[in-house]
Predict the 3D structure of the following.
Amino acid sequence: MSEIELEAIKYIEEQAKGGKWPIATPPMIIEAYKNKPNNNNNNNNDNSLNQNLFNDNCSSLFGFPPKIEGPTAWFGQDFEQNEHKWIYHLTQNDINELKFAVQYFINNNFELKKLTEPNAKDLFPLKNFGQFLQSSKSNQLVNGPGIWLLRGFPITQYNAIERSVLFLGIGAHIGQPVSQNAKGHLLGHVKDIGHDPAHPDTRIYATNQRQWFHSDACDIVGLLCLQVSEQGGESSVVSSHTIYNHLAETRPDLLAILCSQFFRDRKNEIPAGKLAYFATPIYYHHSNRAISFFDRNFLIRSHRLQGVKPLSVQQWEALDALEHFANHFALKMILQPGDMQFVHNHSIFHAREQYTDSDQKRRHLLRLWISISDHWEMPQELRDELRTGVLLSGINPCVPLEAE
């Protein structure tokens, strides 16, 4: 461990002891990589040199392509100007089908958890809209840009049980919900419930802090907006493939680092037979696809665990580059009550800005982690982490109606 890495660890832990969430890069790390000699910075416009660097640093080692083509690589500015590429406005017929399905489920006195079982879509009957969900999952999420937003459902007319039935029912037509945390929540609540962001085990969705760009441990994540905050809380999504392409062209040395292993802290959500951490790159290459899996918050304090090395200066620099270009290329939005956002985790990173609640407006979203049968092929070690959710011994999966 280098002297500067030791200084960085000390700085991070002092920040945490002082009640500050140590998500940002320690200043001595930033100074170190900015002053690094022969730094291949973004001002280098020699494309032939950059291509040689890519071949030397990444492609020959990992077999990654120099560029990812297709609908998964897109730019936020284009999508901001062309909302039809990612927003679908529900028709009255769509809304009527959904209302009927909610009432059908409730009238039959089914348990909420039934909507998380295989073939649960039969308990939430949708005729035309069900087929539309299936085709959109394939065309818009799995084989398309990876971001899709449904807008226009009158969610404020629904109570806690009805809106839970609604979202679980829609999720059942897309795939099968999986557990999101150590409590076995199959229906999550993204809400500030006062958890300490400086604690290394905290999941940031239970705070009002900014969530830096990340992906979740499932195939598709869904969010249903129930209420907005008084201030802040802007959501962002970005193509991880667009970031990949930019780094391949301008900083292949940093892309090579992102294609190598990092240690991911499980935050004390440890399945039976597993370690408290696991090694994973941010970009995988498998079956001719680049698959991304990333959450900075799970990486920066993994050094607290026995057997884990601290982040190197080069790794910090690569993480900062990823965050910088994620913000640069992102599509930004304010989710409205009734909006349902779906994201394909293997090609998208998403983020949320810090927010402030009031007595009248307290931000609250329902969340689904969804496993799908027509998922991308992926390495066994990644499939083990992404296909089953958070499964802990002795914990029975549940469907809470409120954040806990």
Summary: Residues 41-51 have pLDDT under 50 and may be disordered.
